[in-house]
Specification:
heterodimer, A: mainly alpha, MetI-like fold, globular, disordered C terminus, B: mainly alpha, 14 helices
Chain lengths: 263, 305
């Protein structure tokens, strides 16, 4: 047992070194902009860059719309599958897993060929349409995570009883979903939303191929042309990912564990 | 009048037994899932099918296998697939073994509880930290002016670049991909290791098994399917990734996603249908990987419930 513990510590220490050295190195590198001393100049330059502010704001907006579209799409479907059509569950689960199977670059290639300006649905004909297609693409990429989060949330509540109770009180379907089901799975929806945010905020492939001024292509552009700013941006991006994951962990603490509470 | 008729139908419906109701009814319950299926069809299935069908057509729209054959005949495309598969294979295999070792260390190694919880938290973050910023982090670490490169050179007199190391290569990319592959392995495999029941170890010990026999005959056979399944998942995960590689090496590294990116941007293959075939090849590789993953997953669930 003693030797086992030694090996466990050794493995853990080596792993920690592999993960922390790049983070420390990136941080150290980001401070080196001023010659001969450490400073936060790179961060000042990055945060003051108008292009940074524009692209970041654009990506946050896209992320918010992606989350709204994802919730509108996933919550009613997962609810309806649970309530009325459990026989469709395997098909829906299979479809929600497809974005993990089909690489994002292939999906966006299909969009570009199907929704060009000469097609019956010319999404790519205008900037607004392309924005919409970007949101749709991101919602597709986030589908596996969003669906799993919501479905797990629905498992912890008694969908049938809640629905019947609401119907007896005279609620319609929209009221039931918006005012009974959604508040009950809000924590699950929020963790799906933050995961979506973490994925969308720095995404490169879709934004770049659809030519939208998003944060991901901006990062790539800075990386190709500057020395110290990329390191500062990497630190900022890591902090954002960390923030999103922390929020999800905190949310998980508030999530109900099971529908079958002891009486 | 209308009012009255609605009431009668409603009354009739209410008094009828549930089975009789569903005799002559529009399939309205399909409306609840219709938006989802329409969305999936329009923005996931049809765009993919469009490329798949295009891969089997020539410029005149006739059926042909020439594009698929060209994938194997064109040296540069064949090379791209080979490099992609090599990078994905090694990053998945190394990531899986290292991740497994770390997961066993934190679950079974007798380490304090905070080690496990902080490793799991960090793994959740690191497995999602990919794309362009990850490339920046490793350029700042192992690039020509990176911290590790400089420390090795100035403090230890080891110039890794003079020794032929270059972070902008396949092996450099594998080292970078490990940064999200290892944590992903930890996140997925830890529940499987938790599923190893303590009683099995005690039963083996009662029967006089040595530690090695316990591992060889109990632990490895039980973990094997989840392990292999996760390796395949990691393989698919790195096969489709492009952002890190693109930010890292620009278009100089010849891997499939970067080739496809260039093809979408400017038809570098001078044949749109060959581009579709390139995309089709990617779907085939990741699709096969996922079929194996599901197969191993169902096998592993037999033991680990």
């Amino acid at each position: 047992m003693k030797t086992g513990r030694f090996w466990a510590w050794l493995v853990f220490a080596l792993g920690t070194a592999y993960f922390f050295i790049p983070l420390i190195a990136t941080f150290e590198f980001s401070l080196r902009m001023r010659r001969g001393e450490y400073s936060f100049d790179a961060y000042r330059v990055v945060l003051g860059d108008a292009r940074f502010q524009e692209t970041f704001a654009y990506s946050v907006t896209v992320a918010v719309f992606t989350i709204i579209l994802g919730v509108l799409l996933v919550v009613p479907t997962a609810y309806w599958i649970r309530l009325r059509m459990p026989q469709l569950r395997p098909i829906v689960e299979f479809i929600t897993l497809l974005p993990l199977v089909i690489p994002a670059i292939v999906i966006v290639f299909g969009y570009i060929r199907m929704y060009g300006s000469n097609s019956p649905l010319p999404f790519l004909g205008s900037a607004r349409g392309t924005d919409a297609l970007l949101v749709i693409g991101y919602a597709t990429l986030a589908l596996p995570y969003m669906y799993r989060a919501v479905d797990t949330g629905l498992r912890t509540i008694d969908v049938r009883t809640l629905t019947e109770a609401a119907q007896i009180l005279g609620a319609g379907w929209i009221t039931i979903i918006a005012r009974v089901i959604l508040p009950n799975v809000l924590i699950a929806v929020l963790s799906g939303a933050f995961l979506t945010f973490a994925i969308v905020i720095g995404e490169f492939t879709l934004a770049s191929l659809l030519n939208r001024p998003a944060f991901g292509p901006y990062l790539q552009n800075i990386g190709a042309n500057r020395a110290y700013e990329p390191a500062a941006l990497a630190v900022i991006a890591f902090a954002i990912t960390w923030g999103c994951m922390s929020v999800i962990q905190v949310l998980a603490r508030f999530a109900p564990k099971s529908a079958n509470r002891p009486n | 009048m209308t009012q009255a008729s609605i009431t009668t139908t409603a009354d009739a419906a209410r008094s009828a037994p549930p089975d009789a109701q569903s005799g002559f009814r529009l399939p309205t319950h399909w409306l609840g899932v219709a938006p989802f299926f329409i969305f999936a069809l329009m923005f996931l299935i049809l765009p993919t099918l469009y490329l798949v069908v295009g891969a089997f057509q020539n410029d005149q729209g006739e059926f042909t296998l020439a594009n698929i054959r060209q994938l194997f005949l064109d040296a540069s495309i064949r090379d791209a697939y080979w490099v992609s598969i090599k990078i994905s294979f090694w990053s998945a295999t190394i990531g899986a073994f290292v991740g497994l070792a770390m997961a066993i260390a934190i679950v079974r190694g007798g380490l304090p509880r905070w080690v496990r919880s902080s490793t799991m938290t960090f793994s959740g973050v690191a497995s999602n930290f990919a794309g362009v910023p990850l490339a920046f982090a490793f350029l700042a670490t192992l690039g020509r002016l990176g911290l590790v490169t400089v420390i090795l050179r100035d403090a230890f007199g080891i110039n890794i670049y003079a020794m032929g190391f270059n972070v902008l290569s396949s092996w450099g990319l594998i080292v970078v991909y490990l940064f999200f592959q290892i944590p992903l392995m930890i996140v997925i495999i830890t529940p499987a290791i938790d599923g190893l029941k303590r009683e099995w170890g005690e039963a083996a010990a009662t029967l006089g098994a040595t530690t090695w026999q316990y591992w060889r005959m109990v632990v490895i056979p039980v973990l094997w399917p989840s392990f292999l399944g996760t390796v395949i998942l990691l393989f698919a995960n790195s096969f489709g990734a492009i952002a890190t590689a693109y930010a890292f090496t620009g278009s100089s590294l010849n891997i499939v996603p970067i080739k496809l990116y260039a093809q979408i941007r400017g038809d570098v293959l001078h044949n749109p249908h060959l581009g579709y075939a390139l995309a089709f090849g990617m779907i085939v590789v990741t699709g096969l990987a996922n079929i194996f993953y599901i197969w191993f997953r169902t096998r592993s669930e037999r033991w680990l419930k």
